[in-house]
Amino acid sequence: MSVSSVTPTVVTPTVNSSSTAASAQSITTLTQQDFMNLFVAQMQYQNPLDPMSDSDMATQLAQLNTVNALTTMNNTLNEMMTNQASQNNLQATSLIGKTIEATGNSLSIQNGVVSNGAYQLSQPGNVTIQISDSSGNLVRQINAGSQDTSMQSIGWDGKNQQGVTLPDGTYTFQVSATDQSGNAVSATTYLLGTVNGVSFQNGAAVYQVGGNNINFSDILAISN
To answer: Is 2.60.40.4070 the CATH number for 99-223?
Structure first.
């Protein structure tokens, strides 16, 4: 009895081309369920005269387990990041009410209360301090006289050159100094004040000190 050649019948699933195209555009990554659906479809429509070998099946199952492990790891990392962000937020709010020293040259007047600033010379010199409003207009000049290299307070009383109390707002100060020969002496300026609020911008804490916003990276010292 002769055996005639058999041509296997391959079943081609009917697919709506328009919906498939739309799905292809919207899906950018494969999930674990997508991987399993592809694996089952491959088993269902494989050539019965040339089935998948045991080694190939084992390889694909191993890949499925890898996808599952990576998904679990990703979920765990996301939970850790969320917990860390919450902890950082709690630590940030703990600075409210603390007095800080930060780099900067900002001053403020809020409800008549004047914030403080400080400076430190690189070498002894004769100091002049200029205070400007938010528009850059000079409102006060203080001749602080001869100062050494220790940290010095601005000591501004919130008044202009004529002795008139200035309105609430944000101000800046500039420190210039010269030595005995008239050569310029560099000065580092600092903002001093109490943290009265905190906000978060792009996940980073920003502290409100008077009317100024201070980044955590600019804070040099914290005290009660």
So the answer is: yes
pTM exceeding 0.70: no
Residues of the chain with CATH 2.60.40.4070: 99-223
Each residue of 107-159: pLDDT tens digit? 988 888 888 899 999 999 999 999 999 999 999 999 999 999 999 999 899 99
d(CA 68, CA 209) in angstroms, rounded, equals 48
> Which residues neighbour 105 within 8 Å (Cβ) at sequence distance 6 or greater?
117, 172, 173, 174, 175, 189, 191
